[in-house]
Amino acid sequence: MNREWLEKDFYKELGISSGATQDEIKKAYRKLARDLHPDKNPGDAAAEERFKAVSEAHAVLSDPEKRSEYDEARKLFANGGFGRGGFSPGGGYGQGGFNDFNLGDIFGGAAGSTADGGLGDILGGLFNRGAGGATRTSTRPRRGSDVETETNLGFREAAQGVTVPLRMTSPSPCTTCHGSGAKPGTSPRVCPHCNGTGVISRNQGAFGFSEPCEDCRGTGSIIDDPCVDCRGTGIQNRTRTITVRIPPGVRDGQRIRLAGQGEAGLRGAPAGDLFVTVHVSNDKVFGRNGDDLTLVLPVSYSELVLGTTVSVPTLEGRVGVKVPAGTADGRTLRVRGRGVPKRSGGAGDLLVTVKVAVPPKLDEEAAEALRHYAEAEKAGGFDPRAGWAGA
Ligand SMILES: [Zn+2]
Ligand SMILES: [Zn+2]
């Protein structure tokens, strides 16, 4: 239950500052509790949720002991003491700083805690585990980080697949100091304040508390002569360009995972993955419906009535599409296998939708012919509105 505290801002819930006095807490709570009370807001689920949240916030903050636990925990987590991915000078390279933890480890390890589940116990347990770091194995090789990037593709590139260069900037171990953060020829020394554990323990009332050492910021080591190239961080942003094959058939907004193309792992660990989000531009002619390629084919009325064969573009060359005599406007004709390539082999279909283009102006000869046609059509018994609208 208490680990949920870390995700909650009880001060914000009550609308007070973190330095609020007990009096201010009480006042804020009373006012909110009055306004949000279920009796006053019957059937208002949102008010009820807020009422519960406010009550919980008050229960913790009005109890000085719980409040100080809560404050401590928030301070630690706000400092990013845990779960900062990647490596860090000293700590990450095997000396056992906080960076070897992630939250999953912490809570997993503390689950067997014997005490009443107080936050102090959970944290105390985990810090003690960390403080006994001499025997802890922290040399587990770490997989490289995943890298996110994006690329813009043309419609046809995305449909057919394309090889693109991707420029990526990502943090890598500094090449000058090999990630130690110390000037070449020097090395980080063990922090005398925490004896290299990165943790300072102190007792406060009933609880034993541990917190990151301030002298070494929890890394367990001190750098006297920082590396000039990375200013002691051990990290450099490196830009690299890799060539990536985008498979055919990707859609706009799709995120592609390229296994092992992310950051290199440390100490021989596997590399992370590269995720590429693809943006696909529209095409003037083609649209897509899954693996099918769509297009609208402008035709004349007479072409629909008499039938014709029209040359139509595809992703690869043109193809003759037969429009049968008597084709209705708006009908879709299917050309098998001329759509978007499928990853499983083969391709979708090309869907050609015919759309009548009406001439904006006719010359006299055509108009005259059309008048004759209209008469013949009527005489032939064609009624476009037969059976329409109840007629
Ligand atoms: Zn460096
Ligand atoms: Zn220290």
From TrEMBL:
Cofactor(s) in the UniProt record: Zn(2+)
Domain (CR-type) ranges: 161-239
Principal location listed in the UniProt entry: cytoplasm
Residues noted as binding Zn(2+) 2 in the record, renumbered to the chain: C191, C194, C213, C216
Record-listed Zn(2+) 1 binding positions: C174, C177, C227, C230
SUPFAM superfamilies referenced in this protein's UniProt entry, alphabetically: Chaperone J-domain, DnaJ/Hsp40 cysteine-rich domain, HSP40/DnaJ peptide-binding domain
Zinc finger (CR-type): 161-239
HAMAP family in UniProt: DnaJ
Role according to the record: Participates actively in the response to hyperosmotic and heat shock by preventing the aggregation of stress-denatured proteins and by disaggregating proteins, also in an autonomous, DnaK-independent fashion. Unfolded proteins bind initially to DnaJ; upon interaction with the DnaJ-bound protein, DnaK hydrolyzes its bound ATP, resulting in the formation of a stable complex. GrpE releases ADP from DnaK; ATP binding to DnaK triggers the release of the substrate protein, thus completing the reaction cycle.
Family, as annotated: Belongs to the DnaJ family.
UniProt free text on domains: The J domain is necessary and sufficient to stimulate DnaK ATPase activity. Zinc center 1 plays an important role in the autonomous, DnaK-independent chaperone activity of DnaJ. Zinc center 2 is essential for interaction with DnaK and for DnaJ activity.
PANTHER family in the cross-refs: CHAPERONE PROTEIN DNAJ 1, DNAJ HOMOLOG 1, MITOCHONDRIAL-RELATED
Protein name: Chaperone protein DnaJ
Origin species: Nocardia macrotermitis
Name of the encoding gene: dnaJ1
